[in-house]
Amino acid sequence: MKYMMLIYNCDRPEPGDPGFTEALDRINAFADECRRRGVLVAGDPLQPESTATTVRVREGRTLITDGPFAETHEHLGGYYIFDCDTLDEVLELAAICPFAELGGLEVRPLASVPGLDHTPSAAFVRE
User: Fold this and answer.
1) Which candidate in 47, 67, 73, 95 could, as Cys together with 51 as Cys, close a disulfide (CB 3.0–4.6 Å)?
2) Which pLDDT belongs to residue 32?
């Protein structure tokens, strides 16, 4: 089953900041472990919430707003998608993820919806 792990409230160091190299080494070691186990599907950090744009359609009108959808004290900083056999397996990975020490990790199974077609664009299909 596929699971998404959402990373919240992790103020990660940026390139050039003290601690960046150490943080990068730790997260790359985590990704290496996930690849070794054969469960890593995808994972990416997100740009800061100040770069977000929210789109809503109301009564046929598209409303575009700079910034995140809701005011909140928590911010989504990135994600991983894993393909694990059990919830226990993905929770074990969450517990060894360096981001768990900095913020919070939310783990959710991806839903399977009959008839839903989310086939990737041809440019993203690996042969």
Assistant:
1) 47
2) 96
In the prediction, which pLDDT does 127 show? 55
Using the CB atoms, write b or e for 38-62: b if 16+ within 10 Å: ebbeebeeeeeeeeeeeeeeeeeee
Question: Which residues are paired to 64 by β-bridges?
Answer: 55
Cα→Cα distances 25→19, 28, 52, 83, 93, Å: 10, 5, 28, 23, 17
pLDDT score of 21 = 93
Question: How many angstroms separate the CA atoms of 78 and 106, rounded?
Answer: 11
- Say yes or no to pLDDT of 72 above 80: no
pLDDT tens, residue by residue, 46-59: 888 888 888 889 99
Q: 10, 108 in Cβ contact below 8 A? A: no
Domains of the chain, start order: 2-113 (3.30.70.1060)
Q: Report yes or no: 5 and 104 within 8 Å, Cβ to Cβ.
A: no
CA distance 107 to 98: 15
